[in-house]
């Protein structure tokens, strides 16, 4: 049976986060909190998804339009509780069939558990079903009150619970499946006669039961899935739990993770089998890593593509393409627009930006390559700078195939170094170098004899120089 409507409650103030960013937008593992919930919901293929927004409305709506443009939003101007938020959502919907209601701050929730809830809800013909879990520390959660026949009687919020009820370990996840028509009829009967003066969606359960509805509590095995995020401590806890879940899935799929506790892979990243992730590695965003690659230690990849058999060691790369068999690092910085063709090498203390390095070519160390294309089989000597910026505009450098750029060269763009050409070490190249030629752009050296003794008397340099002057006189 298909799911008609999902309502995600994301209007809370999130005051305990102490942040100008709305709570549901705080990121972990490559998605916002509400983004993780949306991802879980997507597995159910609902026909309609409505998000109730409130605090930070503009920011939340802008984020939703980017990550989930298919959803609609409803604004809860005055926060009046989960029941009030659901009322607002129903006012804007002509919901039929089954409606799923859940919170926007439960990033560990999976589509599998949501499907389990819906399956039991439909199979039993229930009016309402609540997803529950047994929490070893239920503090802060609504308690599940069951009848003698094990059916769900009601949900009691902790602030309204007595001492006996607070000892109950089974808690409300905040995830509900309702008969949409029955929910619409009961939601208007809610009252705010509680300690918070709010309308609780949980009270709908008792209303529906008193009206003869069948109510189910669907207990899942792993309480971790229902954990909500209310402050920075819980944000960090959820991030670590997601890290562990992702790493375990990767290892079972054939990825070697040497130190899972120090390895962070976003839920949005893709890592193939037979990849090795060394300690201190972070694979972020939409990064994809092909089979046989070795990443790390201490490496960060953001929105990158890494080819089969490539090695990236102690480096950082963002929006870069690293080809099959390429070698990067250590201490390399690849900025957006960098493209390394197969079997190329970018070594220690090299920065590249908006540049292509040809197959088999090398930039081994201590260089900057920006706004350039380098052909195949070329070597860029140590301390070479591609001078791409004139203070107003960026300019492009072209280096051909099998070129040898001498150490400490300055290639002042726009300039082209032809196939098979060389540049002499220490040259400032301001004009094109034809294929097969050597470009020499340096002045003839001259030595001014005795300069230190005359200009820097009394210094250690002068003292050292004077010893040689005395030795020469003796000779």
Q: What features would you describe in this structure?
A:
This protein folds into two domains: 5-226, Spore Coat Polysaccharide Biosynthesis Protein SpsA, Chain A (Alpha-Beta Complex); 255-439, 3 Solenoid (UDP N-Acetylglucosamine Acyltransferase, domain 1), CATH 2.160.10.10. It is 22% helix and 28% strand. It contains ten helices and 39 strands. The strands form seven sheets. Strands 13, 14, 16, 17, 19, 20, 22, 23, 25, 26, 28, 30, 33 and 36 form a 14-stranded parallel β-sheet that branches. It has a seven-stranded mixed β-sheet with strand order 5-4-1-6-10-7-11, with helices on both faces. Strands 12-15-18-21-24-27-29 form a seven-stranded parallel β-sheet, covered by helices on one side. A hairpin with a 2-residue loop joins strand 2 and strand 3.
């Amino acid at each position: 049976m298909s799911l008609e409507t999902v309502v995600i409650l994301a209007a809370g103030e999130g005051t305990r986060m102490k942040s100008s960013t709305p709570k549901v937008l705080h990121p972990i593992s490559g998605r916002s909190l509400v983004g993780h919930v949306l991802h879980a919901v997507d597995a159910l293929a609902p026909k309609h998804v409505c998000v109730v927004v409130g605090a930070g409305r503009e920011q939340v709506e802008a984020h939703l339009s980017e990550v989930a443009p298919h959803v609609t939003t409803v604004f809860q101007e005055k926060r009046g509780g989960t029941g009030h938020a659901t009322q607002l959502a129903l006012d804007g919907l002509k919901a039929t069939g089954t409606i799923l209601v859940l919170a926007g701050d439960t990033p560990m929730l999976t589509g599998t558990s949501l499907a389990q809830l819906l399956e039991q809800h439909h199979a039993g013909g229930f009016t309402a079903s609540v997803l529950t879990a047994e929490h070893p520390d239920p503090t802060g959660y609504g308690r599940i009150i069951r009848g003698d026949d094990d059916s769900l009687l009601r949900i009691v919020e902790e602030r309204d619970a007595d001492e006996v009820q607070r000892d109950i370990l089974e808690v409300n996840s905040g995830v509900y499946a309702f008969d949409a028509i029955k929910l619409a009829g009961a939601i208007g009967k809610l009252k705010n006669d509680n300690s918070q003066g709010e309308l609780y969606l949980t009270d709908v359960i008792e209303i529906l039961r008193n009206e003869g509805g069948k109510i189910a509590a669907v207990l899942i095995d792993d309480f971790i899935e229902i954990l909500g995020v209310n402050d920075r401590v819980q944000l960090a806890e959820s991030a670590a739990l997601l890290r562990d879940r992702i790493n375990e899935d990767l290892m079972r799929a054939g990825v070697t993770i040497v130190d899972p506790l120090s390895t962070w892979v976003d839920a949005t990243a893709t890592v193939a089998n037979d990849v090795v992730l060394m300690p201190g590695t972070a694979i972020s965003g939409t990064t994809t890593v092909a089979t046989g690659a070795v990443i790390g230690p201490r490496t960060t990849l953001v929105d990158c593509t890494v080819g089969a058999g490539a090695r990236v060691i102690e480096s950082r790369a963002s929006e870069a393409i690293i080809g099959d068999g390429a070698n990067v690092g250590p201490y390399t910085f690849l900025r957006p627009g960098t493209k390394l063709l197969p079997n190329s090498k970018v070594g220690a203390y090299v920065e590249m930006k908006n540049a292509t390095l040809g197959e088999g070519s090398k930039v081994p160390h201590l260089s900057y390559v920006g706004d350039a294309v380098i052909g195949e089989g070329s070597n860029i000597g140590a301390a070479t700078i591609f001078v791409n910026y004139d203070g107003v505009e960026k300019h492009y450098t072209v280096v051909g195939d099998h070129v040898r750029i001498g150490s400490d060269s300055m290639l002042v763009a726009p300039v082209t170094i032809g196939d098979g050409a060389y540049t002499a070490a220490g040259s400032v190249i301001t004009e094109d170098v034809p294929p097969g030629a050597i470009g020499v752009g340096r002045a003839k050296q001259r030595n001014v004899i005795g300069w230190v003794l005359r200009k820097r008397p009394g210094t250690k340099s002068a003292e050292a120089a004077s010893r040689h002057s005395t030795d020469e006189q003796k000779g």
